[in-house]
């Protein structure tokens, strides 16, 4: 059975392994970036486990703007108690657990927590091949992002919560 919980520093090695199995070296969060996120935003960093094995993760800081900016990949600060926009900097599922509802469960959990804290939206960027996936969960496509992260084209996806 899938269990979702907040991240701990002990999760770090498995998180790095999953991230690197899902993203190119240029796109993947570094170990250092994960350490920062675990330290500053454990309240919006969730882990999916099955039989005590980490199979997926979702994380991102709460930001003041509706869209993600590249500085977020290096500069993270603590989340405000309420309000703002919940961003998703990373959603990754172990390849052997993909297509089994893990990503959907992580997104649903993040949304539930964001609603409790009265966030205005959930905002993320994705590659073109994932637009339909996010649309299925109520995200709207706001066009090409200004993000240069990893040297690929990203699309702004946003879901209003209020």
From TrEMBL:
Keywords: Acyltransferase, Transferase. InterPro entries: Acyl_CoA_acyltransferase (IPR016181), GNAT_dom (IPR000182), SNAT-like (IPR051635). Residues 2-162 form the N-acetyltransferase domain. One of its GO terms (molecular function) is N-acetyltransferase activity. Pfam families: Acetyltransf_1. Transmembrane segments: none annotated. The keyword Transit peptide does not apply. PANTHER family: SEROTONIN N-ACETYLTRANSFERASE. This is GNAT family N-acetyltransferase. It comes from Bacillus taeanensis.
């Amino acid at each position: 059975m899938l269990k979702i919980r907040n991240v701990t520093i002990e999760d770090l090695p498995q998180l790095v392994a999953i991230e690197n199995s899902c993203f190119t070296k240029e796109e993947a969060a570094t170990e250092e970036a994960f350490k920062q996120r675990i330290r500053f935003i454990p309240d919006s960093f969730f882990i999916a486990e099955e039989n005590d094995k980490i199979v997926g993760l979702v994380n991102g800081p709460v930001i003041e703007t509706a869209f993600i900016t590249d500085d977020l990949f290096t500069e993270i600060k603590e989340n405000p108690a309420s309000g703002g926009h919940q961003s998703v900097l990373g959603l990754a599922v172990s390849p052997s657990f993909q297509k089994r509802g893990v990503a959907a469960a992580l997104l649903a959990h993040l949304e539930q927590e964001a609603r409790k804290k009265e966030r205005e939206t959930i905002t993320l960027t994705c590659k073109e091949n994932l637009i339909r996936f996010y649309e299925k969960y109520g995200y709207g496509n706001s066009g090409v992002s200004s993000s240069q992260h990893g040297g690929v084209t990203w699309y702004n996806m946003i879901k209003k919560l209020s």
